[in-house]
Amino acid sequence: MSLAVLAAAAALCGCGASEPRLDGARRAATAFEQALARADYSGACALLAPQTRQQLEEDASTPCSPALANEGLPAAGTVGDTQMYGRQALLRLAGDTLFLSQFDDGWKIVAAGCEPETDMPYRCSLKGG
User: Fold this and answer.
1) pLDDT at residue 17 in the model
2) What is the residue range of 118's domain?
3) Per the structure, how many domains does the chain have?
4) Distance (Å, rounded) from C-alpha 32 to C-alpha 96?
5) Which helix (H) or strand (E) holds 6?
6) Are 1 and 122 in contact (CB under 8 A)?
7) Would the pLDDT of 30 be above 50?
8) Mind listing the pLDDT tens digit for each residue in 31-88?
9) What is the full DSSP assignment across 16-79?
10) Confidence (pLDDT) at 76
11) Which of 124, 110, 115, 117 has its CA nearest to residue 32?
12) How much of the chain exceeds pLDDT 90, in percent?
């Protein structure tokens, strides 16, 4: 699902998500941000969606950990607004916006380093293909 479609869907329907699902997405986002803050890039890579990790490695021509270290993602801080639609979530943190998807093994980061743009919903420095 494209980020534009996800953002539009999240804006239309952030309600109705169960508290455990909201908590799961928030925990994954917090774990990702804490791993980045500790420079635990291996741990942060484990929280990326498969396509996002693959795209990062292809773009950098290097394994995930060093590629993520060089990505320069912003320090995001605490989770603020959370919007969900189906198995997708948009989380606005103090310093970043993350997009997540729910997989069989839990919530994974689909995109990070996202900022709203004038004519498009978001531009993300880290995203899947």
Assistant:
1) 55
2) 3-127
3) 1
4) 12
5) helix 3-12
6) no
7) yes
8) 999 999 999 999 999 999 999 999 999 999 999 999 999 998 987 778 888 899 889 9
9) S--HHHHHHHHHHHHHHHHHHHTT-HHHHHHTB-HHHHHHHHHHHTS-HHHHHHTT-PPP--SE
10) 78
11) 110
12) 60
Q: Residue 126 pairs with which residues in a beta bridge? A: 112
Phi, psi of 22 (to 5 degrees): -60, -45
Q: Mean pLDDT for the chain?
A: 85
Residue 103 belongs to domain with CATH number: 3.10.450
C-alpha closest to that of 86 among 20, 13, 26:
13
Closest alpha carbon to 126 in 39, 40, 33: 33
Please report where in the chains the tokens 């590629």 appear, as a residue. Answer: 67
Looking at the whole model, is its pTM more than 0.70?
Answer: yes
